[in-house]
Amino acid sequence: MIRRISLLASLAAAVALPAAAADPDLIVFDWASFESESLVSDYVAKHGQMPTYALYGDDDEAFQKVASGFKADVAHPCSQMVSKYRDADLIEPWDVSRIPEYANLPQRFKESKIFSDDQGVWYIPTDYAYTALAYNTETVPPEDVASVQIFLDPKYAGRISLPDNTDDIWSLALLATGVSDWTNLTEEQFQAGAAWLRQAHENVRAYWADPSELAQLMATGEVQLAWTWNDAIALMRQEGFPVGFQRESKEGSATFFCGYVNFKDAPGSEDKAYDFMNAWLAHSSAKSLLASHGYAHSNDAAMAEIPAEDIKAAELAPVNATLLAQNPLDAKMRDRMLEEFEKIKSGF
Q1: Scanning 5, 28, 265, 306, which has the fewest C-beta atoms within 10 Å of its C-beta?
Q2: At 331, which helix (H) or strand (E)?
Q3: Model confidence over 91-118: pLDDT tens digits?
Q4: What's the pTM value of the predicted model, to 2 decimals?
Q5: Rounded alpha-carbon distances, angstroms, from residue 58 to 113, 140, 260, 315
């Protein structure tokens, strides 16, 4: 089952999995549900066991955990968080000469100076997907999801769910107010996005913290519309729920990618950290990632081996619509987004 376990439910602090055979020489700090052997099968084949995993459910909470002294060897933040790890002097560059498949990663994942500069490569992108409008196809007519402004419609008051996540909630707000690039937001754009979120808040039944929570809300009929990731769609479809995923609304949808950073002064084996990355970028991992999470692999050569119909079924085919790329943005602006969202959720 595809799920990211909520921090509020069971992961208020990261905890290592109680695995019977976990490699103590490599601690991987990762999203819950990514502790899958099929994603790192080459590592298991070489070392005879999985790495030790510590799990989290939210990028900001994960950063605070590490900044407060938690020790791991590698972690799996999404791209907009990398600057925070760098600014806090928590990570060091990867030696990509030891990661052959890095050459197959497209330039679109490498072009930011936050990821790669004259000091080296700080970030290895591994997976990407979309954030878009999910809806119950049996109760919501297609014309209602032609625009994300449906989240403001009184018709659906108390029947929508939005992500309890700074980056995803602001991608929606900005798209809804005509912004498709958040890297240089003006004050006017920020205030317009915040005002839109305050309107949407009036219709929200619940802010979901993980896809399994959202799936339950939609399965019971409490929620008819949501803004969510591909893995929530994959989960609901596996359970036979009639869910659509509108990535081509009038305003568009968002796309995000995540990857791994290499911690300074890590407690484990540097060699095994490279074995882990090489296992993740192996072609076999792409098929597993698609099947288990509904995500695309950053390795274009690996993705080229997957049938086009499988990619289309997973809602990963290219879209003919505006896309807001959740790329790194100004750290101070992101902190403002986080603070403003907390105010909005509290009714202010």
Answers
A1: 265
A2: helix 331-345
A3: 999 999 999 999 989 999 998 999 999 9
A4: 0.88
A5: 24, 30, 15, 23
